[in-house]
Specification:
It contains 3 helices and 16 strands. By secondary structure, the chain is mainly beta. The strands form 3 sheets. It has an 8-stranded antiparallel barrel. It has a 4-stranded antiparallel β-sheet with strand order 9-10-11-12, with no helix packed on it.
């Protein structure tokens, strides 16, 4: 390549780099957080229609008055309220003033909030730590099984854990909030007389590929129930459920008489 062509290529590349930097600078500038609006949102806000406390904005966190909804980090960009919970959710701000905040919820409905002037409202947020929703109990099942004149023993134990599962729901304002649940680990042991055929702990991740990823993320391994015995072996039904919801997946957990494992969607 000649010297002139080389200089020309370097010049064009330099322009491209400068252009990209300017473009990125503009994007960053356009996406700058509105700290004035964030400061204006500080305080306790009342739903004007329901006449109850909606939330408290303190610093960069929004707190809810109920004991199950998790606090959420928030930002304001270009007349948009952004909540960074289990999902990042945006709410258009229609109007904001020192004592007024109007925005559109998930359904596009207007939510009108006014700044509380009642000092007693702050007590709704004192000593109110979010409570996890879960069964939090150990479940044990000991079952004697007979097949082809052979005697088997099945042990199932559902063990609560400290593994958190975040589930999104909607409050009275139509705002997405996060509830926290704790997952379970389920242990199964199978014996033929004194011979141990199978022993394993099951986690919900063991059902990856059988249950959609997004569903699995918000679900817990709820239970494992013995169902039947047949020529394939011992059949247990694993329940993978989204808490406080009718949505669930039932997976057939099949353990053969030689102790091998197979999973199948019911």
């Amino acid at each position: 390549m000649s010297f002139n062509k080389t200089v020309f290529v370097i010049f064009i590349c330099s322009l491209a780099i400068v252009g990209c930097k300017n473009k990125n600078s503009n994007i960053q500038k356009n996406s700058q957080e509105d700290y004035t609006a964030k400061k204006m949102l500080q305080g306790i806000w009342i739903n004007e229609d329901e006449e109850d406390v909606a939330f408290r904005a303190m610093g960069d966190t929004i707190y809810y008055p109920d004991s199950t909804s998790q606090p959420v980090y928030f930002q304001i960009f270009n007349d948009t309220l952004v909540l960074h919970g289990a999902n990042n959710v945006k709410y258009p701000i229609v109007k904001q003033a020192p004592h007024l905040f109007i925005f559109k919820n998930q359904n596009g409905e207007l939510v009108k909030l006014t700044l509380s002037e009642d000092p007693s409202d702050k007590y709704m947020f004192e000593d109110s730590r979010p409570q996890a929703l879960n069964q939090n109990v150990v479940i044990k099942r000991d079952t004697v099984l007979i097949h082809a004149n052979e005697r088997y023993h099945s042990y199932v134990q559902v063990n609560p854990t400290t593994y958190k599962v975040m589930k999104a729901s909607y409050n009275d304002e139509g705002v997405e909030v996060d509830n926290v649940y704790y997952d379970n680990i389920i242990h199964i042991s199978l014996f033929k007389g004194a011979l141990k055929l199978f022993s394993r702990d099951f986690h919900k991740q063991d059902f990856t590929g059988k249950v959609p990823t997004e569903f699995l993320r918000q679900s817990i391994l709820s239970d494992m129930i013995f169902n039947k015995m047949d020529s394939d072996g011992f059949h247990y039904t694993a329940s993978i459920c989204i808490p406080d919801s009718p949505s669930s997946y039932m997976v057939d957990v099949i353990i053969s008489y030689s102790g091998t494992l197979k999973l199948r969607i019911n």
